[in-house]
Design goal:
alpha+beta, 3-stranded antiparallel sheet, globular
């Protein structure tokens, strides 16, 4: 995908508003990710003292809390941004592909816990749902990813631990919630059929991913 190089958080927000859908990291389509679109100075870099700097990683929190985009693992299980303009159609189509969690299922337990608690970081949600035994983390994360792909869970913000001086460090944890609680139920409603939503999204993608194949586009939308 050809686009002007991004040098700031504000420019990235403008791009997301313009194209509507943007994976954070490698999407499998050449040039189509925030990581590939930002300048070299904004990508991950190791520092001489052993630390790291990654402006793009730091931007994602303020972009999400600004309220103009939805963030989660939406693209073939990988994280990315979707503009609020396109969210109703995307949510409409994706939910049609993923049935409502069955009564008594783990997925339903996760959603009910979030509805009761409002928002939780992953490890808190995992403990609240009883996934505390050995080798439970990867199993639980798989459920969370599926629920994000189904547009039933989104990221509200990112929470970072702090050192004794009050300084944030580390990669941070996703603060998870449901889109209805974060944006309101109306934000997830759409006047189109799921097929109409899918065709509208496909038409839009073809306009800015002119060199990508139909198969490549469908892979990240399914």
């Amino acid at each position: 995908m050809k686009h002007q190089e991004i040098y700031s958080q504000a420019q990235l927000m403008e791009l997301i508003a313009e194209i509507g859908f943007l994976p954070l990291l490698d999407s499998g389509i050449s040039g189509y990710s925030a990581e590939e679109m930002v300048s070299a100075d904004c990508r991950y870099a190791m520092l001489p003292d052993g630390g790291w700097d990654w402006p793009l990683w730091k931007w994602k929190g303020p972009i999400v809390t600004d309220g103009g985009v939805v963030y989660g693992k939406f693209f073939a299980g990988k994280a990315g941004f979707i503009s609020r303009k396109w969210w109703p159609d995307f949510c409409n189509y994706r939910r049609s592909q993923h049935p409502v969690p069955a009564e008594g299922s783990i997925e339903q337990t996760i959603l009910l816990t979030l509805q009761e608690q409002g928002s939780l970081i992953t490890r808190e949600l995992r403990a609240a749902c009883g996934f505390t035994g050995p080798n439970m983390r990867s199993r639980f994360d798989a459920y969370i990813t599926r629920l994000q792909m189904a547009c039933r869970i989104v990221t509200e913000d990112f929470v970072y631990p702090t050192d004794r001086h009050g300084r944030e460090y580390g990669w941070g944890w996703s603060l998870l919630t449901t889109p209805e609680q974060l944006y309101g139920r109306e934000a997830c409603l759409c006047r189109h059929t799921p097929e109409e939503s899918f065709q509208a999204i496909m038409t839009h993608f073809r306009q800015f991913l002119t060199e990508a194949s139909e198969k490549e586009i469908v892979r990240i939308l399914k």
